[in-house]
Design brief:
This protein has 183 residues and is mostly beta strands. It is built from one helix and 16 strands. Strands 9, 10, 11, 12 and 13 form a five-stranded antiparallel beta sheet that branches. A four-stranded antiparallel beta sheet has the order 1-2-3-4, with no helix packed on it. The longest helix is centred in the last third of the chain and has 7 residues.
Length: 183
């Protein structure tokens, strides 16, 4: 591999590495040690995440008009776009039956999907965690068992103490999926 690479992500089966270089999304086959471009559409590809079955990579694309989530098969035969405005930072549910994503300043959403026999969106996105508009940049991840949500975020007024420093918050929510079901 040559050049600068960012946002590495390993497939669950250990066969693939995805990464971003020069605003394009690449796949590296760890068995054959070969590299290929998975996506080079207009915009900046970022934050790739493999599906639990290792057949698909979901990733954010930022560009003119905002952000979106694209999903590509590792064999290059399937290209899909999740049509939700300003979507970014995709994360697969551990069971592969949902795809989570973030809309900055609004919340974390969940949309039902399937990857068998091919990728398909099965419903409409639903907000599962709301954010106050005063929250600035947010990142999140879901534990492999699906029971814990971790989030970090900054305030839009990052200089909270008047000292010119940027402050952020890190939190985690255990049994969060069950608490959503209980509501």
């Amino acid at each position: 591999m040559e050049g600068d690479a960012a946002s590495p992500n390993l497939s669950r089966d250990g066969k693939w590495l995805s990464f971003v270089r020069d605003s394009d999304l690449f796949l590296y086959n760890l068995e054959s040690e070969s590299e290929s471009v998975l996506d080079s559409t207009l915009g900046v590809q970022r934050d790739p995440d493999f599906s639990p079955d290792s057949k698909y990579v979901a990733f954010g694309v930022s560009g003119p008009g905002g952000g979106r989530i694209d999903v590509r098969s590792v064999d290059g035969t399937s290209k899909n776009t999740l049509n939700y405005p300003q979507a970014q930072l995709p994360k697969w549910a551990p069971d592969g039956k949902s795809l989570y994503f973030l809309v900055q300043g609004d919340g974390i959403y969940k949309v039902p999907v399937t990857t068998d026999p091919s990728f398909e969106v099965l419903g409409v996105p639903q907000k599962v965690v709301g954010l106050q508009s005063s929250v600035g940049s947010v990142w999140f991840d879901i534990s492999p068992d699906g029971n814990t949500l971790a989030m970090s975020g900054t305030s839009t007024d990052a200089d909270l103490r008047g000292d010119g420093k940027n402050y952020s918050t890190l939190m985690w929510w255990r049994n969060w999926a069950q608490s959503l079901k209980d509501e």
